[in-house]
Amino acid sequence: MNRVCDIVGIKYPIFQGAMAWIADHSLVAAVSNAGGLGIIAAGNAPVEWVEAEIKKCRQKTDKPFGVNVMLLSPYANEVAELIAKEQVAVVTTGAGNPSKYMELWQSQGIKVVPVVASVALAKRMEKYGADAVIAEGTEAGGHIGEVSTMVLIPQVVDALNIPVIAAGGIGDGRGFAASLMLGAEAVQVGTRFLLAKECTVHQNYKDKIITASDLDAVATGRSTGHPVRGIRNKMTREFLKLEKEGTPLEELEQLGSGALRAAVKDGDVINGSVMSGQIAGMLTKEQTAQEIINDYITELATISKKELINF
Ligand code: TUI
Predict the structure, then answer these.
(1) How far is the CA of 97 from the centre of ligand 1 (A)?
(2) Close Cβ partners of 197 (under 8 Å, ≥ 6 residues apart)
(3) Of 188, 158, 154, nearest to 171 (Cα)?
(4) What is the pLDDT, as a whole number, of residue 45?
(5) Given this model, what pLDDT does residue 224 score?
(6) Less packed terminus of the chain by CB within 10 Å, N or C?
(7) Chain CA centroid to CA 180, Å
(8) What is the Å distance from ligand 1's center to 53 Cα?
């Protein structure tokens, strides 16, 4: 029995992380059809795009899938209402506190699973009736918190009664097993699913992940209060230099805006933002979503059968 599988109605306790501009119906349906939970990333997209993606996803799978609301988006309110109207199975949220939407979603029977990066927000989410939380460590890609997965997960698990899903740096069955040992009941995987054959991100972006080494996924924007992790390139070097020089926030934000789209859609991995988790250094190949999920499950099974204590 796995509480997360029961709550969201999936076979394997593996969520696909919502990656803005990247996680569309093609990846999401593939992950859900493979027994995990695919999640459409609304990101900064207008509500019409999200609605069309939900419809296309429903044509490709009859399995549950989710939609993620990026709470810094100018369209967050409209996307939140769309999710209620469409009665999407699961909603996840990122980059903020979703409490003002939770009653609306719960009234429609939607499972609510916020992403948190601290114990304080995790506790608040449980109080508001969240069904589970995704606790995301700073190893993750994109917009990140400060605490590592290893340290965050057991503290969130101790503070909550609802299930915890671990995210950030979980690149194979070893990370999956470790997450379960820390008390998580499921994992969320972003960067590795970016390398899924069904993932429509530009090939240059995939190649940048495949060739990255352990030190290449750097955080920029700490001084802006919105740190973002991505693969080191001309853009991150310029951003860090400007930050050091004390460039005004507005100018920095201008540099960041549009940069993710440029990398994802145009393949501009030099001036664009190649958001990625620290686990990129371990990833070497493209696979189908089904192969990725099978790898996690078989590796976990092997580890579980191993004698872990043999001093
Ligand atoms: O949201 C993410 N990761 C993201 S969102 C994104 S799109 C974007 N594009 C350009 C600039 C910025 C974002 C790319 N990656 N992960 C979930 C996450 N949420 N990580 C950390 C948090 C978080 C942090 C602080 C959640 C809540 C929070 O505090 C909220 C509060 O009010 O207490």
Answers:
(1) 9
(2) 286, 287, 288, 289
(3) 188
(4) 96
(5) 86
(6) C
(7) 18
(8) 22
pLDDT at 5: 98
User: What is the identity of the amino acid at 262?
Assistant: A
Q: How far apart are CA 24 and CA 171, in angstroms?
A: 21
pLDDT at residue number 228: 96
How many CB atoms lie under 10 A from the CB of residue 109?
8
DSSP 281: G
DSSP string for residues in 152-202: HHHHHHHH-SS-EEEESS--SHHHHHHHHHTT-SEEEE-HHHHTBTT--S-
In which residue ranges of the chain is pLDDT below 50? none
Q: Which of 224, 214, 225, 208 is nearest to 271 (CA)?
A: 208
Residue 307 buriedness (CB in 10 A; 0-12 / 13-18 / 19+): exposed
Q: Please give the pLDDT value at position 254.
A: 77
From atom 27 of ligand 1, which residue's Cα is the shortest distance away? 96
Give the model's pLDDT for residue 83.
Answer: 98
Look at ligand 1, atom 5, and give the residue with the nearest C-alpha: 143
Residue 172 confidence (pLDDT): 98
Pick from 16, 2, 9, 5: which is nearest to 292 by CA?
Answer: 16
Distance CA 229, CA 284 (A): 19
Q: Hey, CA dihedral for 301, 306, 309, 311, is it positive or negative?
A: negative
Pocket of ligand 1 (CB under 6 A): 20, 43, 70, 72, 94-97, 115-117, 121, 136, 142-145, 226, 228, 256, 260, 275
Pairing state between β 186-189 and 164-167 = parallel
How long, in residues, is the chain?
311
Cβ-count burial 144-174 (b if 16+ within 10 Å, e if not): bbebebeebbebbbeebebbbbbbbbbbbbe
Alpha-carbon gap, residue 180 to 166, rounded angstroms: 8
Tokens linked to 266: 């145009």
Rounded to 5 degrees, what angle do the CA atoms 75, 80, 85 make? 125
